[in-house]
Amino acid sequence: MIAVHGADTRVAAVAAGLRPTRIEVDLDAIRHNVGRLVTLAGGAEVCAVVKADAYGHGAEAVARAAVEAGATWLAVALAEEGLQLRDAGIDARILVLSEPPVAAIADLLAADLTPTVYREPFIAALDAQGQGRGRPVPVHLKVDTGMARVGVPPDHWQARFEQVATAEGVELEGLCTHLARADEPPVDTTSQQLAAFDRAIDQAARVGLHARLTHAANTAGVLLHPRSHHVLVRPGIGVYGLSPSSEVDAAEHGLCPALRLVSEVSFAKHVVAHTPVSYGHRWRAPEDGWVATVPIGYADGVPRRLTNRVQVLLAGRRRPVIGTITMDQLMVWCGDEEPVVGDEVVLLGAASRAPAAGPPPGRPPGAPPGAQPGAPPGAQPEAPAGAGTDPGSEAHPGPEAAAPDGTPPASPPLQVRVEEWAEAADTVTYEIVSSLTARLPRLHLGVAH
Asked: Are residues 417 and 278 in the same domain?
């Protein structure tokens, strides 16, 4: 991870001898998002989820920024992730969201990591070690209310509550659950889950268990379901300014993306009409024109299934990615405009950085979604289809509505949203950013605060 102070990260990257393809993470955007989530949580504590290397953003730097902005807890998926944060000198409370192996208990306790528990054997082993060290281990007990992934199922609640209540080496600090469909506003599953969670809290109380912290809300819970807030909330994708689903737009809730994926033109080639490009010849030039090669591919985390489906920003315009995306490189159609080797190519994020404070990048509340790029001119029938977009057009997400007082809206920044990739790949924003691989250097802006 490289800390960069100042705006010209490309110069800094080249000076440091790094490849021109890189991830830039704006830590001021992280701070902005966490601060916004603190406000939206309405008094509940915020536990910022930084698992999977902070969803590909760099866990150490993001964790520090999140705590600076008001997060009182951090959450990871694995004990190893928590140990890495401790090794980096981060002393905030850290919740491990899944039970580690019993063999990891000693390391977990030595690092003062707080385990989530739900299985009888693990709780028993933890109880024994807590008694052995002479003080109980604080735990968060997870109950399943409808996710059916991990957590104590309802027919085992009573037995598990009684086990924890009688365990001298374990102390119940938290009681939690996870929402399965909070990012689907029309469905009532969330209400049903929260009602079940209320029953679990009451049932635990009847055996003398009174958790200081109850928590259920993920990002969508924070944004859409105030009833889910309880005492603690656990936002993940919202920390990074990204939308939890196509039905919940992060920008409409005042969150802004923190990540840019940037490269540059490494080669320019003029081709004649009908020239095939890349493996399988899944794209042919519709006319004479220029093709730019960019040194990034699926080994870096650009999904191969985005072939002929997305656009990048090059020389102030949206340009379609053409031909099959390869392991280390992809190609871009530039039409009759000759690309210049060394010119910046923005694959994700804004063409230029905007301040994190104030209105977030993207459309304002109520504005229609932006046009999604489809198959570029020249795509062959076997290539994925989509709604076409003029590859040389200026890029704006779509028409903007005037403010209530009649003030004309500010033009949105030229950008490619992670949400576009997620839609084109038929997946979620979480997968897009967490799949960006370790061979991409992460440059963190705004480290000193």
From this structure: yes
CA trace torsion 150, 154, 160, 165 (10° rounding): 120
pTM (global) more than 0.90: no
> In terms of residue numbers, what domain contains 65?
26-246
pLDDT digits 0-9 by tens, 332-391: 999 999 999 999 999 999 997 544 443 333 322 233 233 333 456 666 533 433 333 333
262 neighbors 10 (Cβ within 8 angstroms): yes
Strands 289-294 vs 311-314: parallel, antiparallel or unpaired: unpaired
137 plus 236 within the same structural domain: yes
- CA torsion 200-203-208-212 (nearest 10°) is 20
The H or E element containing residue 115 is: strand 114-117
Q: Is residue 2 part of a domain?
A: no
> Which residues lie below 8 Å from residue 142, measured CB to CB, with a gap of 6+?
116, 117, 118, 150, 151, 152, 176, 177, 178
Instruction: Give the number of other CB atoms < 10 A from CB of residue 80.
Output: 12
Closest CA to 224 of 250, 200, 259, 196: 250
**Residues taking part in catalysis:** 51, 279
Q: The CATH number of the domain where 37 resides is what?
A: 3.20.20.10
How many Å from the N-terminal Cα to the C-terminal Cα in the chain?
17
Say if residue 145 is in the same domain as residue 272. no
The conformation of residue 228, written as its DSSP 8-state character, comes to: G
